[in-house]
Amino acid sequence: MKILVGVKRVIDYNVKVRVKADQSNVDLTNVKMSMNPFCEIAVEEAIRLKEAGVASEVIVMSVGTSQSQEQLRNALALGADRAILVSTEGDVEPLNVAKVFAAVMKKEQPGLVILGKQSIDSDNNQVGQMLAALTKRPQGTFASKLVVDGDSALVTREVDGGLRTVALTLPAIVTTDLRLNEPRYAKLPDIMKAKRKPLETMSFTDLGVTQKGHYRLDKVEAPAIRSAGVKVTSVDELMSKLKDEAKVI
C-alpha cells in the first residue's frame, strides 16, 4: 500500500512573525522556514506504518515554490521514499491545494492519505475535509491514534467532548493532531542519502488543475499589544482584584 503525505513550508514556529510595512502580507525576508509541525507528525506516522509492514511506499508531496524542496528533502531524510513538488508562485488557497492532491491521488492510487490537520501560518484546517469531499473518500480528522488493519483503519479523534473512534474503509484520508506521535530527527547519513532520492516536479497544468481565486487578502495586521499582567501575593488579594477591578465576581 502507498501512503501519500502532505508537507507544507511555513515560518518556523519559534520565529516571531512580522507584518510588512504596507500591511500587504507577512514579511518573509531572512526568516527561518521549516516543515509545518502537523505535517511532521503526518510524515512520522506514515514512516511508522511502513516500518510496521503496513505500507510499501511513502510519498511526500508539497504545493508551493521551488524552495519547498528543502522541506521535501527533509521528509525524505526522515524515511519517505520519494517526493512530488507541485510548483507554483504565491499563496495557494486550500481548495486549490485539495484539487491538486485529488489529481495526484488519481495518478498514484494511495491506500491512505495523511495530512496535518492544519498549517500554523493560515490555520485554515480545510484541505483534508475538502479533499475527502472531492474524492468521496472516508475521513478521520484530528487523529490522536491510528491503527491500520488490512483494508480498514481505526482513527481515534480528539473532539470537544473527549475522544471518539471511527472506523474507515481504505482508501481513506486522515488528518493528524498533536498527540498522534513524537516526530524523529533526521540523521546525517540519512540527510546525505535523501539527496539521491527521487523528487519529481510538476505544475498545475500537468495535473489538469486550474488555479482559481475565491477570496482577496485586503490587509494583514499584527495583533494588539497586550498590557502586562499583575502578580498577586495571596488568594485574598486575587479575590479582591477579581471583585473590585475585573468585576467578574
TrEMBL record:
Q: Which InterPro entries match?
A: ETF_a/b_N, ETF_b, ETF_beta_N, Rossmann-like_a/b/a_fold
* Record-linked Pfam families: ETF (PF01012)
Matching SMART domains, A to Z? Answer: ETF
| Keywords of this entry | Electron transport, Transport
Domain (Electron transfer flavoprotein alpha/beta-subunit N-terminal) ranges: 23-211
UniProt KW tRNA-binding keyword:
no
* Database matches in PANTHER family: ELECTRON TRANSFER FLAVOPROTEIN BETA-SUBUNIT, ELECTRON TRANSFER FLAVOPROTEIN SUBUNIT BETA
The entry assigns this protein to a family as follows:
Belongs to the ETF beta-subunit/FixA family.
Protein name, as recorded: Electron transfer flavoprotein subunit beta
